[in-house]
Each structure stands twice: as C-alpha cells, then as structure tokens.
Amino acid sequence: MTTKALKSTATASQILPALFAVVLGLGIVTLTGHVQASTLHDAAHDVRHATGFPCH
Amino acid sequence: MFSRILTSALFAGAVAGLIIALLQLFFVQPVLLHAELYESGALVHFGADPVTAHPELPGLFDEPMRNLLSVLFTMLTYTGYALLMVALMSIAEGRGHAITARSGILWGLAGFVTFHLAPGFTLAPEVPGVAAADVGARQIWWFATVASAGLAMWLIAFGSNIVAYAVAALLLLAPHVIGAPEPDVFTGPVPTEIGALFAARAFGVGLAAWVLLGAFAGYFWQAEGQRAEA
Question: Which chain A residue lies closest to B24 (C-alpha atoms)?
C-alpha cells in the first residue's frame, strides 16, 4: 500500500464516524426542536421556546 | 472511533443537559408562564384596569409532568448538539488541534454563536403569544442561518488566512442582510417587558449552556481517549 493510500484510509476512518455522529445529532435536534407533530410539539414546547427554536 | 464519539457525547449531553434544564426551569420558565397568562387572555395588557406585574404563577412542582418532559427534551437536545460538537472535535484533533475541557470552552462559545446568537439576532427567542411568520418558513431560515454561521465559526477557528476571515464575515452577515420571515402585522398580547426579559434570559442561559456543553465535551473526549489507551 502506498503512503497516499494509507493517508486516505486514515482520513476516511476519521471522517466516516464523525459524519455518522453529525447525522445522528442533527436527527435528534430536528426531532426535539423542529418536527411539528402535535404530541412532540406539546412535550417539547417549553424547551423549544427557551432554546430559541421557531415554535408555533 | 465512533464509540469514543458516542460515549463522550452522551456523557457531555446528559450532564450539561441536566444542569441546563435546571437553569431553564428556574430562570426562563417563570417568564414563559407569565407570558402564557397573556397568551390565554387570563391577563390583558392595556385593558380597562392596570394589571399587576407579579401574578401567582405555578411553582416548579405544580406541573411535574410538563417540567419532567422539559428536562428530558433539554437533555436530548443538548445530546444532539454534543454529537455534532464531539464529531467536529474528533476531526480537529485528527488535524493536530488539542481538545481539552479548556479548549472546549471556546468550542462552546462557537456553538452558542452558531445555534443561538446567529439565528436569534434576527429571529429573537420568542415568548409564547408573539406574532410571527409561518413556522415552516422560519425553520428554513433558522437552518440556513445556523449552517452559514457554523461554517463561519469553523473558518474563523481554522482558516488562518485573510480570505477565510472575509468569507466568514460574509457568512455571518448575509442571513441578517437578507432578512428572516417576518409577520405581516403585530398581534402579540404580551407586554414588551416580559418579551424582553424572556429573550435576555434565553440568551443568558443559552450562553451558559453552550460553555458547559463545550467544557464537558472536551473533558469527556479526552477522558474517553485516555481510557481507550489504558
């Protein structure tokens, strides 16, 4: 394996887990902060206001 | 690598989230409950009679389910933010930048600017009952502003040349020059004193929240790394 290939493997092994964590994190924040389904909205209502998300 | 990100983010999100939830319940929730009395019409601003500025408000333990849900959702929200932050921390560390609880404070400040101050600079934290444009349109503007502010903070932190700083400044300014969706008419029944206090409290608790989250994320990231090496 060449040095270049080694380097790109190292980068991929760093980037992929980070990318997956970013997608998971964005998913959670979208769910708790932005999805307008009424049960979710009512449960998260006070937090959405206090955290500065657009709520209603 | 992924388990280190996940574990540090879960710890940081849970610990910081719990403290933030208590700060919100103590400092933000009473202002929100006060505003809801005007939103529901129980109190009327500029009605026939003067209204007391200190009405009876439900206490912390009068609505246990509502407040428990708030604690849960605050912890969840900040765990989501922690995942984003620790993921970026792992990339920064891979490029040779030290990640500690101390440097985490700077990460927290950048997070506050990205997720709280930048969108809130034009779409101020809303007290219940304010007039606002369509929620879908505001959400699109919120996400776009957060994305451009986040990129700007990364360029300021790691760009290290004048072009990067100039692009960052443009990214920070553009959403506010373009403008956010605004309501056509003002219909909010809540006194301006309550609305102003709410925005100030939301920003203050938000700043504390992000600094705590950054410090804990840096701390747990380092602790998990040492545990993995041991």
Answer: A50
Which amino acid, residue B9? A
Q: In this predicted complex, what is the ipTM?
A: 0.90
Backbone angles phi, psi at B127, to 5 degrees: -80, 150
What is the mean pLDDT of the segment spanning A38-42? 90
Token pair 């219940």: residue: B128
| Tokens 């388990």 found at | B3
- In 3D, which of B181, B176, B73, B81 has the Cα closest to residue B136? B181
pLDDT surpassing 80 at residue B47: no
Closest-CA distance, B214 to chain A, in angstroms, reads 15
- Could you tell me the residue ranges of all domains in chain B? 2-229
Which of A11, A27, A49 is nearest residue B126 as measured by Cβ atoms?
A49
3-state secondary structure of B134: coil
Cβ–Cβ < 8 Å for B77, B14: no
Report how far residue B78's alpha carbon sits from residue B18's, in angstroms, rounded to the nearest whole number.
Answer: 9
* Structure letter (DSSP) for residue B115: I
